[in-house]
Amino acid sequence: MDKLTPYFPLNKKVDKNNVVSLIIVIAIYIVVAAVLGVVVGIMSLLPIVNIIGWVVSVLIGIYELIGIILAVLAFVK
To answer: Could you say which residues of the chain have pLDDT below 50?
Structure first.
């Protein structure tokens, strides 16, 4: 898990004894996903950008899912 820390710097803020820090990090991941969903939704009006936006949206969704899982693991660890 330490090898993934540079790719997920937000997870450094999760404290093992502080549930609020875990909730804040998960909330940040969810808010970023929602904002990017709105941006991709607006960009989907253009046909070519729609395909590229969909691919970027999927990749960012996977990144955020992995980030949330690693945040929970950092809290449990």
So the answer is: none
Q: Which structural domain range is residue 44 located in?
A: 13-76
Is residue 5 domain-resident? no
| Domains held by the chain: number | 1
Whether residue 4 is contained in a domain is answered as no
Question: Do the domain assignments include residue 7?
Answer: no
For residue 66, the Cα-to-chain-centroid distance in whole angstroms is: 7
Please tell me the distance from the alpha carbon of residue 58 to that of residue 21, in angstroms, as a whole number: 26
Please, are residues 47 and 57 in contact by the beta-carbon 8 Å criterion? no
3-state secondary structure of 62: helix
* Residue pointed to by tokens 């549930």: 19
Q: Are 7 and 64 in contact (CB under 8 A)?
A: no
Global pTM reads 0.83
